[in-house]
Design brief:
The chain has 280 residues and is an alpha+beta fold. Helix content is 37%, strand content 18%. Helix 3 crosses helix 5. It is globular, with a radius of gyration of 20 Å.
Amino acid sequence: MSEQIIKDLEKIDSAFKAIKTNYESNWQDTAKYFRPTKTDISQKKTDGDQQDVFTLFDSVSYVALNNFANILNGTLTNKATPWFDLKVEDDEIAEDDEVLKYLADTTKKIWNELYNSKSNFENAHQENLKDFGCFGNCAMKIEEGKSSIINFSSLHIRTYNIGQNEEGKVDTVVISQEMTAQQIITKFQEGGQISENIKKAGENEPNKKFEIKLYVTPRKDRDPTKIDSGNMPYDVFFFFSFFYLFLCSLFVELDPCRDSLPDTVVFWKLTKHQIIVTGK
């Protein structure tokens, strides 16, 4: 990764942080009453610090948020009722029996993976619904799993920044998380470039934490008629610094030649959802 790219990414992150600062104090105050386990937005807490949990004398707000999340889950994404389907954009084959059968089978497979107990979807989804009710924003990280095909994890609102294009659609995401040296080595040892200081920490201090940033930005130079890895709609960068499909603006395309799962950030639109399969 060139120094210029790193500088450009850091500028993006700094600009997002400046905008987000205006909201963080309000989120911090709101979290004290609705999400007491997430009161480390504008102030960092030590691991295991539950001070704000014990200063919450009335549980009305906490229970109300849980009820809100349960109602959304029961009405929009009820496990007992199919709440999404697949279709193709090409009208010429949209009613073809073989195509419809393929889409129905694929929908069933996606459903089974979502509700596979090892995918963590239900837990992450419930956390996101609570964040949506408390902060008005939520994000879910979707990546390849070890014990399941896909693994879902809810992101703390402190850990991600987002940017929108001229149409108000999310097109840029910066995720900042802490990982231990051992976690970094385990996750990125295949095909990843791990710095010597992290390797050394993995040997001597495996629980030492490092900040990792993931940048997802629109690719400026690409040929949309090509579907190779050099012409994907988005660039993805992991930067080690010493670093749900339910969007109001769905910005991730399903590219048939992408080797890794897409990184998505989510805003919520309170309607049933239909996934459009792009690519042929």
